[in-house]
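User: These chains co-purify. Model them together.
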Amino acid sequence: MMKGPVKILIVEDEVFIGLSLEAALSREGFEITGVAASGDEAVREAAAASPDIIIMDIHLAGDMDGLEAAAQICTSENIPIIFMSGYADEYIQTKVDSFTPVAFLIKPVKIPQLIQLLNDTFALQK
Amino acid sequence: MHSSTIIGLINNTALLLALGVLYDTLIRTPQKQKTFRELITGFLVGIAGIAIMMNPVGFMPGIVFDTRSILLGISGLFFGPLVTLVAIIMTGTLRLYQGGAGAITGTAVIIMSGSAGLLWSYFRRQKIYDKSFWELLLFGAFVHAGMLLLMLTLTREAAVQVITKLGIPILVIYPPGTALLGLLMVRRYNRSRTEEQLRESEYHLRNLIDNTSAGYFHINNEGLFSDVNQAWLEMHGFSSRNEVIGKHFNLTQVDTDLPMADDTVKHLMKGKTIASAEFSRKRKDGTTGYHTFSAHTVMRNGKPEGIEGFLIDRTENARLQEEVEAANIKLQSTIADMERTNNALNIVNSKLFEANKDLADSEERYRLLFKEMMSGFALHEIIQDDHGVPVDYRFLVVNSAFEKITGLKSADITGKTVREVLPDIESYWIERYGHVAATGAPVQFEDYSSSLDKYYEVRAYSPERGKFAVIIQDITARKHSEKRIENALREKEILLRELYHRTKNNMQVIQSMLLLQSIGTESDEVKTLVSETDMKIQAMSLVHQMLYQSQNLSSINLKKYISDLSKLVTESTNFPAGRVSFELTLIDTEVTVDIAIPCGLVLNELMTNTIKYAFPEDMKGTITISLDRVGEKLHILYSDNGVGVPENFDFHAQKSYGMRSIFSIIERQLQGEINVTTGNGIAFSIFFNDSHYTPRV
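Assistant: Joint model of the two components:
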């Protein structure tokens, strides 16, 4: 049984997208531990805040993309991940599947759909 | 001169003419016992001379004149030495016996005359019987000039008297007498010779008739046989002329031929001619023979005397003819067969000739082609190991283009193997060629040779087992161009996808901005505005999403787009799930971004309006969208079964941005038309031409 709101780490290099997600999810009662703009930052934030779930964009600014960041995070933490990307080719799909993610959302992410997904995932904990 | 002298000379001349008769008699005698005949002739000439000398013309005692000089001269000229010698001896003896003053002179004249004749004959022997009157006259003058010279052997007084009194008469009378006698002799001889020739000719003719294999016949003007030869008798089966001579020619005619035979004989009897023709004949034993018949009229004194002609037996020929005709029929048949065969052979020959010509032309063309062709050509022999695996190949012949394309000179590679020439050659070249040489199956491929650092287009085939030929072209430049184009296309694709992605991403950023701006406001109007704008952006973003995922980057599938859009609208609104359902009947069709985005905006507007207004309270409804093609136009029929609009509702008069945009997009941007019908719900019928825009990428 989870105590308190569901903690979410948002990893998104597009600032306005990250902010809009943060605003929309906060209004729905989720706790946003942070909005990371790079892979390195994501790894650090994940380690520091121990979120219940990470919403991870794949294409990120910097040397580390979302998949690499997820790989590093998973080595130490067992945190569920929702991947999102504007790219949806076969290569990315295969890579994403290897993490057994909660979901893989194609951008633009529909806020109601995302909220529904989170509610379904954490229904028992809420 | 006394008349008695002239009369004496005429008597002498008359005696001389008798010599002609004598000669005529003598030359008719058989030419046997020549010497004896000549002795007799000499004797008779001598007798004639004696007779002449017995009728002399006395000139003076012991001197007489006669024509013995003419006689002996002519004898010498015509009868030869023996005759003349006998005559000289006889007449000379008589003169010596007569004695007198002129005995010696007279005897000398005898000897001189005979000798002159013999000498003239000797020197003119070849033409003695062709002597003319003038030559004989000259001969007479010669003899009697000699005779007058011999008068000089008399006493001078006697000689003067003889020469003065008898000189001119002797020279005037004796030479013509000699010439006339000689001419008589010549003519008598010629006549005799002609008769002899005639007799000889008759002999030969008879001999010919008797011995010829052709049957000879002669029929008189009464139609009776008067002569036939031995061959004729044999042809008709008779053994003796007696069986035939005097019999009518009907004797040997076949009954059926009698009228024609009669006509032929009558025709000939009139002096007319007939062409040689073939007739049948009746033999003595009743059998029939065949012969070629030729005949002519025998004329005597200008009147037909009878007919004669020859038959050439054709009986055997007729039999042979039948055999020949039978053989000829077979031959004709054989010839016809041969002609047909020949014609067939000619056709074959003609075709062979044409084929050979074509082949020669073809060979020449190929030789020229081989030399001048731009493509490289090379013939090789494959080399296999003990297990039949191709391990190498040998260059047999290459053309100049091959040298130019590969840089390998014919002189350097002919006879060598490829592993000797290019040790680092990739084994797949040898494997491919080995397969061609082994199976005969041609191949065509493009590949890179690292040894030569070039790309080649290769056509390989096997002209005979164990060998293969290649026609190659250097495509290195083309390959490089293709690479550049491929890279450029890939870059373009990447750029386009990135562009679509960025566009879509930017739209999401704008959506996010709108969302952030609306957070915290309590205004429903602002919230609605943000929501509607967000929906429009999503409709546009979906197009870029699909373009990014499409193969050709310039068009999207309209069916999938409308389907995805309907789900997107449903998910993006807060309308309770299950209250609105969609019924979609859509054809598969591709449209460009310029068509897809306006379509998406219009449908988004219609769907949003339906959801907002058509189903108030808890009403459930259905949105029906169909897409099909009418002619060159696309037809979208959008309808719902909601509450509809009030009667006389004027859509064009609506001031709302959404409704105005629907008509503007269809009628102005897409150059189409839109019709609205109301009643049980509302229906929008939209037509537009989707080829209004052409692909831009």
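Residues 15-27 of chain A form the longest helix (13 residues).
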